[in-house]
Amino acid sequence: MTVLDWDLVGEKIYETGVKKGVLYVRNSLGAYPLGVAWNGLTAVTESPSGAESSPIYADDVKYGNIKSAEEFGATIEAYTYPDEFAACDGSAALASGVTIGQQRRSIFGLAYQTAIGNDVDDLDHGYKLHLIYGAEAAPSEKPYQSINDSPEAITFSWEISTTAVSVAGKKPTASLTVDSTKVDPTKLAALEAILFGTAGADPYLPLPDDVTALFAEQAISAVALSTIVPADAATNVAKAANVVITFNNKIMREAVVVTSAAGAIVPGEKTWDAPGKILTFNPTSDLAGATVYLVTVGGVADIYGQTLAAVVKKFTTIA
Fold first, then answer.
1. How far apart are CA 22 and CA 206, in angstroms?
2. Contacts of 275 (CB under 8 A, 6+ apart)
3. Is the pLDDT of residue 217 over 70?
4. Are the C-beta atoms of residues 106 and 137 closer than 8 Å to each other?
5. Could you give the CA distance from residue 193 to residue 136 in angstroms, rounded to a whole number?
6. Which residues contact 179 (CB under 8 A, 6 or more apart)?
7. What is the chain's percent helix, strand, coil content, to nearest 5?
8. Is 278 exposed, middle or buried (0-12, 13-18, 19+ CB in 10 A)?
9. CB under 8 Å to 215, separation ≥6 — which residues?
């Protein structure tokens, strides 16, 4: 049998603070590329809503509860904000340094860190990473005041609502939290390399399923080029052929280019399979006959923030 104890040494846990804010403006594909540091972030107040009960009755007794959908909202407070947030706040640039308001507001994601403290380690005990998706800022007031004998910096504030993103096997969500005291430190470091960037890869906000894959029990394989079709040095390749490149891990970004041996870029369309591992390049028109083409596989980074050294493959088309 278990006897409960309260307030044991090391178990007096508390949370505080907010720092390392990062803004990720969502693109037209629903991804959150190219994070930027949010300096001057002072508070993020998370405000979930919904999940309200509506009782139903039958046979003169309470039959059950139907709960409304739960939504995630928050309030962001800061002394300043990144230039990239202007589009999320309804501003648009007319010229360098010239902006107008009341424009369409861009959707964004946000990452920030809060501290976990206890009675032994104080604030060095750990931290939580908070990831927010599908956020949209509502118009907010900016209280400019005359400078007097007790000047104060303006604190900007935005109320945000969210649209949840899909999660495999779970209900959609707009928020995700990672507790440093409970996860593998190596995998946490890999996630932070994705969120904050590295010398070889720009920061971006991974979707919940990508975060799940990162923290899965299996070991993370180094990103690699598995196959390429046409094969390297292949000859008599059909002029209507596509270039199909397969990687071992899901890819977040790439800069694959197909050119002739003379350096002319081949125009075409790139598509990915659902798992994000197979890239197909479909040239806009048939390739020239009896011509050597080069496929430069560069700028490749997987969802774990690992990068692949650029390689060049070649093939020759049929006459």
1. 13
2. 250
3. no
4. no
5. 25
6. 116, 126, 128
7. 10, 45, 45
8. middle
9. 178, 183, 184, 187, 191
Which residue from 79, 54, 74 is spatially nearest to 66, judged by alpha carbons? 54
**Residue type at position 171:** K
pLDDT tens by residue, 80-92: 999 999 999 999 9
Distance between CA atoms of residues 60 and 130, nearest Å: 45
Torsion of CA 205, 224, 180, 36, to 10 degrees: -30
- Measured CA to CA, the distance from residue 160 to residue 73 in angstroms comes to 6
Q: Are 161 and 49 in contact, with CB atoms under 8 Å apart? A: no
pLDDT tens figures, 25-83: 999 888 898 899 999 999 999 998 888 888 999 988 989 988 888 899 999 999 999 99
Cβ–Cβ < 8 Å for 224, 211 = no
pLDDT tens profile 266-277: 999 999 988 889
